């Protein structure tokens, strides 16, 4: 790959886009950014300061302080932080500040895989490849439960499902940059597909685009 190449991956929480993004970035040797972590970092900062999540000026300050090279997944992956992130993510100025950082990341050679909710629609509308990864809310809830149980925890499926549905509603219903597939996105429904199959399907899409580009 001689010039910048961008793969945009969007979809709801728990659809498997994070794993897919990592596999694609490894395979094509591209940089990787989980943009959810940037919203989580803002939420985590406000929670730590004991500030309400609708404190716009504090959220803007926290957004400006986000350092993409220093996002601690372990700290930021907590369920409560994800829930809080979807609340700060409705603030348009916070989005503008974070989107600017995400675009700069995407432009750095050799290019990147970015995953989130608005990558193909807002952050990288000119991405070479756009994937919209989805799965039914029931399947996503069962996967989340299996993940919790595999780490020795326990949870109630109905509660997880309600959480997922609430987050979907917030992400798809917000006025600024709602979650939706870009018009030119390839849809990947992972409800009945293992992540390996989703990776192979995505790879076929990327390889075809690369072959077309090399022929041009
Ligand atoms: O993907 P993740 O669960 O880490 O994202 C946390 C929250 O951050 C999402 O529910 C969503 O509200 C917000 N987000 C966003 N735009 C992105 C990535 C995440 O609004 N590009």
Short description:
The protein is an alpha/beta fold and 216 residues long. It has ten helices and five strands, in the order βαβαααααβαβααβα.
CATH topology description of the largest domain: Rossmann fold
Question: Low-confidence runs (pLDDT<50, min 5 residues)?
Answer: none
The sequence of SSEs as H and E is EHEHHHHHEHEHHEH
Radius of gyration: 17 Å
Give the integer mean of the pLDDT values: 95
CATH fourth-tier homologous superfamily of the largest domain: P-loop containing nucleotide triphosphate hydrolases
Per CATH, the architecture of the largest domain is 3-Layer(aba) Sandwich
Shape: globular
Helix content: 55-70%
Largest sheet: 5 strands, parallel
Counted beta strands = 5
Strand order of the largest sheet: 2-3-1-4-5
The structure class reads alpha/beta
CATH class of the largest domain: Alpha Beta
Please state roughly what percent of the residues sit in beta strands, choosing from under 5%, 5-15%, 15-25%, 25-35%, 35-45% or over 45%: 5-15%
């Amino acid at each position: 790959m001689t010039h910048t190449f961008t793969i945009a991956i969007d979809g709801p929480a728990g659809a498997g886009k994070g794993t897919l993004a990592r596999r694609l970035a490894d395979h094509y040797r591209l940089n990787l950014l989980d943009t959810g972590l940037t919203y989580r970092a803002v939420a985590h900062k406000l929670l730590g300061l004991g500030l309400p999540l609708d404190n716009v000026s504090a959220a803007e300050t926290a957004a400006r302080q986000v350092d993409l090279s220093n996002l601690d997944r372990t700290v930021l992956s907590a369920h409560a932080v994800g829930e809080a992130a979807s609340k700060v993510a409705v603030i348009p100025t916070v989005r503008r500040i974070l989107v600017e950082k995400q675009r700069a990341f995407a432009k750095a050679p050799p290019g990147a895989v970015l995953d989130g909710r608005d990558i193909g629609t807002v952050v990288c509308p000119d991405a070479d490849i756009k994937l919209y990864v989805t799965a039914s809310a029931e399947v996503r809830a069962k996967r989340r439960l299996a993940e919790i149980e595999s780490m020795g925890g326990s949870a109630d499926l109905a509660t997880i499902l309600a959480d997922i549905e609430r987050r979907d509603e917030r992400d798809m219903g917000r006025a600024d940059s709602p979650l939706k597939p870009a018009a030119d996105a390839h849809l990947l429904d992972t409800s009945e597909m293992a992540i390996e199959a989703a990776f192979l399907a995505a790879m076929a899409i990327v390889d075809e685009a690369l072959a077309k580009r090399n022929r041009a």
